[in-house]
Write a structure and sequence with these properties.
There is one protein chain. By secondary structure, this protein is mostly helical. The protein has one domain. It contains 13 helices and no strands. The protein has helices spanning 2-12, 18-27, 29-38, 43-64, 66-75, 85-129, 136-146, 150-163, 190-196, 201-218, 230-238, 245-259, 265-270. Helix 6 packs parallel to helix 10.
Length: 271
């Protein structure tokens, strides 16, 4: 009887507005996520995250430019030593327009796709592993609101990019949120730089909030248990983190580095 009365009381309680939830995710995350679990909604936070990603992407393309980004990509690739200056210039001219288009597209669709996948994983953890009966809308809403902390990182990234020296801004890691920010990627090996850039503050912050949100969304059965899967979820997000604004162009740059082929090398390989 008491549970029924509590549910009826929750149904009559007005949900917080988006500005209240946005502020609450920073100052009172547990209460905010409980409110989201009670009355889910994902449109407003998803739009905010997409706008944050677009802001960072456009700042990078405007201040640093696709040509400079592409040149940095080739310089950090293993093929840089085998490329002549003429080959480097030709590769930059050919790759810059494609890279810019790719960054524009990923800037719009990257965050929604990544968050949908993460929410699906969260739903799997909550329902199949912990035996809850959460709905996808609830879990997706909780993941979107937990990810709002990355907006702070996006604002920092835009400030660093806009007011910094474009020749010294690392487009792949512009925010001082991990050790990799303070490391010159050209001075250390790729594995060391990747390890230094692996765990950033905003991703760990998001994971903690996501665990709290999943516990709220799953009910009492998942209270305190969602944190068990944090290491595995962090590993999964290591390769799927388009929710952070600066991660979008970082992933694109890494893909470009893997695909970077000096002009003429394909012909040599085919001959």
């Amino acid at each position: 009887m008491g549970d029924v009365v509590a549910k009826l009381a929750d149904a009559d309680t007005l949900a917080q507005s988006f500005p209240e939830r946005l502020l609450g995710i920073f100052i009172s995350p547990a209460g905010t996520l409980a409110d989201v679990a009670r009355k889910p909604g994902f449109v407003a936070p998803l739009i905010a995250l997409v706008l944050g990603t677009i802001a960072v992407t456009e700042a990078v393309l405007w201040k640093i430019g696709p040509e400079r980004i592409m040149r940095m990509t080739f310089e950090q690739s293993r093929r840089a030593s085998s490329m002549s200056p003429e080959q480097m210039d030709q590769a930059v001219r050919q790759g810059a327009p494609i890279g810019a288009i790719f960054m524009h597209i990923i800037g719009v669709v990257g965050a929604p796709i990544a968050l949908l996948i993460v929410a699906g994983l969260g739903l799997l953890i909550v329902n199949l592993i912990f035996g809850a009966q959460a709905k996808f809308k609830t879990v997706f809403s909780l993941i979107c609101y937990a990810k709002l902390v990355s907006l702070l990182g996006s604002l920092m990234a835009v400030a660093v990019i806009v007011f910094g020296d474009p020749d010294h801004v690392n487009a792949q890691n512009p925010v001082p949120a991990n050790v990799g920010f303070f490391v010159n990627p050209l001075a250390v090996s790729k594995p060391i730089y990747t390890l230094a850039s692996f765990a950033d503050i905003f991703t760990l912050w998001f994971l903690i909030l996501a665990a709290i949100g999943l516990a709220e969304g799953g009910g009492r059965r998942t209270q305190g248990q969602a944190f068990v899967d944090l290491p595995g979820l962090r590993g999964f997000l290591g390769d799927l983190d388009f929710g952070n604004g600066w991660s979008v162009h970082a992933r694109v740059i890494r893909l470009q580095r893997e695909w970077a082929v000096a002009p003429g090398e394909k012909d040599k390989a085919n001959s």
